[in-house]
Amino acid sequence: MIHPVFYLIMIIMTFYSYMEVSSNYNIKPKIKIPYICMVIVLIFITGTRGNRGADYWPYVRFFVGANTFIRWNQIFDSGVEPTYIIFSKIIGNLHLPFFILLFTFATISISLRSSFYYKFSPYPFFTLLFYYMPTYFFQDSGHIRQGASIAICLFSFQYITQRKLLKFLLSILIAYYFHKTAIIFLPAYWIANIYISTFKAFLLIVLSILIAPLEPYNWFGEIFNSLSADTLSDAYNSYQKLGESTFSVGEIVKICFLVIIFSFDKYNIKTANNYNYLKIRNLCLTYYCIYYCFRQNEIFSIRLPIVYDAFAGTLFAIIIKNSKSQINKYFIYSFLIIYLYLLSFRFAANAKKLNFDKFDTLFTDGSAIVIIDETID
User: Fold this and answer.
1) pLDDT of residue 246
2) Which of 109, 110, 141, 353 could pair with 148 in a Cys bridge, judged by C-beta atoms 3.0 to 4.6 Å apart?
3) With contact defined as beta carbons under 8 Å apart, do 235 and 289 qualify?
4) Which of 128, 104, 186, 131 has its CA nearest to residue 153?
5) Can you give the pLDDT at residue 288?
6) Cβ-Cβ contacts under 8 Å for 11 (sequence gap 6 or more)
7) What share of the chain is helix, strand, coil (3-state, %, to 5)?
8) Alpha-carbon separation of residue 177 from 96, 182, 228 (angstroms)
């Protein structure tokens, strides 16, 4: 199991998410202060963590190496995204400890994510909870570069809705310098703004499943090979295998999610008063299309399209908000909450391996206090 502190946070989020769903009016102003406080807590916990999460020690070594071996004129040739080197060198030159770097990335990522949730989700606490288990542990307390990159892509969604292409492209460029996989989000500007009927969307999912045996990721040559190598450098395999068969529990969950989306899609297209429903739905379905297309390759199917999956919590919040009846509303909400808690228990094997069964911070674990005594220009 994860440490009780993490469960306490989860329970508090669940309480506020229930308040959102059960309210008959816009409850956002009422929960704004608790929401901000929860975001601050998440930033603090992941920003001051000690020896917790995938790639913790590789990031420590990158931090030391950036200040020991890389000059300022070499930051674009170091093999690691420039933003990580820049932040590492600034913090190193100021002789600040390593946890400041973690805190910087946590602040960028979680603040941008939470801002997107509050602005575009009718139930921001529910969406924050959906992100918390387990994305918070895998990304913002693990693969921090990709976590920050995805957060910037979420931030760029406002430029998709406003049809501001140049600002969107600038956001993707910045996200790319945090993590190369952001390039997969480049078509999102056009994907989100295409009208795709329920039937055509369903056909796209079926087509994606059918072409998977052809291994379409090989069609893109060195572009995806480069991204794959970068993804592998993030120690993807640090996550413990769960001993599943080819048709795993995760596959069943994806089918359930697709059933929820398609069961209410026509109704939401016709009646939903949320202008962004189709845009967010298109982006979420893009995740499933890429996932099934690249199903033969774990790296491509899971890590590469995950930026599109980051919209799922917002989409489900919209679906719950616009449910046909109270029965549908509470059924979908209850199903998803139960799923998240079951997932938290299923996460136990990885939690123990990545030290989330403990609650180590810089105050209890000195590993976060790494200071560079000497730096190079």
Assistant:
1) 44
2) 109
3) no
4) 186
5) 96
6) none
7) 75, 0, 25
8) 23, 9, 16
